[in-house]
Amino acid sequence: MRTTIKIDEDLYRRAKARSAQTGRTVSDVIEDAVRESLRPRRRDQAVIPPLPIFGGGGVLPGVDLADNAGLRDLMDEGEPVHALR
């Protein structure tokens, strides 16, 4: 299919240079880039490092995970007032 698109001048120069390096047409280089951009990504491609586990037996005594204000108070405990701003 033939179509007209607007493309950044520098980007076009880079595509043209790539086409010269690889012996392909500019259209082929741009088609490959669009195909790659539209290719479905698999979720497992983003490797997320595992969270560190610090040996323990769960939640500390007196900590209620459903109490946001209480959690905030516990996390801020011992911090100087100016550090909490």
Could you describe the 3D structure shown?
With about 80 residues, the protein is mostly helical. The chain has a domain of about 40 residues: Orthogonal Bundle (Arc Repressor Mutant). The protein is about 40% helix and about 0% strand. It is built from 3 helices and no strands. Helix 1 packs across helix 2. The longest helix has 14 residues. The N and C termini lie far apart (about 60 Å). The mean pLDDT is about 85.
Mean pLDDT across the residues is 86
Distance between the termini: 59 Å
For the biggest sheet, the summary is:
none
Structural class label: mainly alpha
| Shape verdict | elongated
Strand content: under 5%
> What is the third-level CATH name, the topology of the domain at 1-39?
Arc Repressor Mutant
- What is the chain-wise order of helices and strands? HHH
C-alpha Rg, in Å? Answer: 27 Å
Count of DSSP helices? 3
User: Helix amount, in percent?
Assistant: 40-55%
CATH class of the domain at 1-39, anyone? Mainly Alpha
Number of strands: 0
**Which CATH architecture of the domain at 1-39 would you pick?**
Orthogonal Bundle
- The stretches of 5 or more residues where confidence is low (pLDDT under 50) are none
What would you say about this model in short?
This protein is mainly α and 85 residues long. It is 42% helix and 0% strand.
What is the topology?
Elements: H1 9-22, H2 26-38, H3 68-76
Main features:
single chain, mainly alpha, Arc Repressor Mutant, 42% helix
